[in-house]
């Protein structure tokens, strides 16, 4: 049965500092490293072992994948990295503290920016501290200046359909190591969650989620590996 494993990166330095991160590249904290290793050990214990891997262009997801694979003695697996699995772009909020932003703009506005389906945060101005246009990893890529969940879905889903689903259908056990909102985009699609209900879905760090697919490549129920 084709199996998909989704894992959100372990705690990042800016998760710890409670800052909007988006496409900005930050490392894992010690806790994040421990979460990533624990995810790998859980996969080994439950014998849910990936055979091929996808991740984003962002260090926190790549490191989480590598740390988990190391626990499984599977650092040798093929890994495909693609910007379309990146976190949603947090626009002009990038780098700001979430609590300070609430104090300035109000809880409701910040909730809309963080969790509404289609309201993007204010755009990032070019040339600022967090402008990534000179970053070589994004050469030739039209970097967004902000993204709602809807816009994130518009780049995650075509990549899922064209590059990941066929690999899964060929019988591989696929792991995707990605981000809170790029994974919300995927889970919304796979679990058929409405635009309204997706606002309430949170994806914890370092907790593998499993989907098993039937012969027609329809996903079954979403389950946390720790509960299986
Ligand atoms: O980019 C970020 O700040 C986090 O990865 C996700 O943040 P959120 O829970 O505020 O959407």
Automatic annotation (TrEMBL):
The active site is at 9 (tele-phosphohistidine intermediate), 87 (proton donor/acceptor). GO terms for biological process: gluconeogenesis; glycolytic process. It comes from the Bacteria. Substrate binds at residues 8-15, 21-22, 60, 87-90, 98, 114-115, 180-181. It holds the Pfam family His_Phos_1. Pathway: Carbohydrate degradation; glycolysis; pyruvate from D-glyceraldehyde 3-phosphate: step 3/5. It is an enzyme of class 5 (isomerase). CDD domains: HP_PGM_like (cd07067). Transmembrane segments: none annotated. The record marks 179 as: Transition state stabilizer. SUPFAM superfamilies: Phosphoglycerate mutase-like (SSF53254). Keywords: Gluconeogenesis, Glycolysis, Isomerase. GO terms for molecular function: phosphoglycerate mutase activity. It catalyses: (2R)-2-phosphoglycerate = (2R)-3-phosphoglycerate. Its EC number is 5.4.2.11. Catalyzes the interconversion of 2-phosphoglycerate and 3-phosphoglycerate. Belongs to the phosphoglycerate mutase family. BPG-dependent PGAM subfamily. Homodimer. HAMAP family: PGAM_GpmA. This is 2,3-bisphosphoglycerate-dependent phosphoglycerate mutase.
């Amino acid at each position: 049965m084709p199996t998909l494993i989704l894992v959100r990166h372990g705690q990042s330095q800016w998760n710890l500092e409670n800052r909007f991160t988006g496409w900005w590249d930050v490392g894992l904290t010690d806790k994040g490293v421990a979460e990533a290793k624990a995810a790998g050990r859980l996969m080994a214990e439950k014998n849910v072992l990936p055979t091929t891997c996808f991740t984003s262009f962002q260090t926190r997801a790549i490191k989480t994948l590598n740390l988990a694979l190391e626990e499984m003695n599977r650092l040798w697996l093929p890994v495909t990295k693609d910007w379309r699995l990146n976190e949603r772009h947090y626009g002009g909020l990038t780098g700001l503290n979430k609590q300070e932003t609430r104090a300035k703009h109000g809880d409701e506005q910040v909730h809309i920016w963080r969790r509404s389906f289609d309201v993007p945060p204010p755009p990032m101005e070019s040339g600022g501290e967090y402008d990534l246009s000179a970053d070589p990893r994004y050469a030739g890529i039209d970097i967004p200046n902000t993204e709602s969940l809807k816009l994130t879905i518009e780049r995650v889903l075509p990549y899922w359909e064209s590059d990941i689903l066929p690999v899964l259908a060929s019988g591989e056990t696929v792991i995707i190591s990605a981000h809170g909102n790029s994974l919300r985009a995927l889970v919304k699609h796979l679990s058929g969650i409405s635009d309204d209900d997706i606002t309430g879905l949170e994806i914890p760090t370092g907790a593998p989620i499993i989907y098993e697919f039937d012969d027609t490549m329809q996903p079954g129920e979403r389950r946390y590996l720790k509960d299986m």
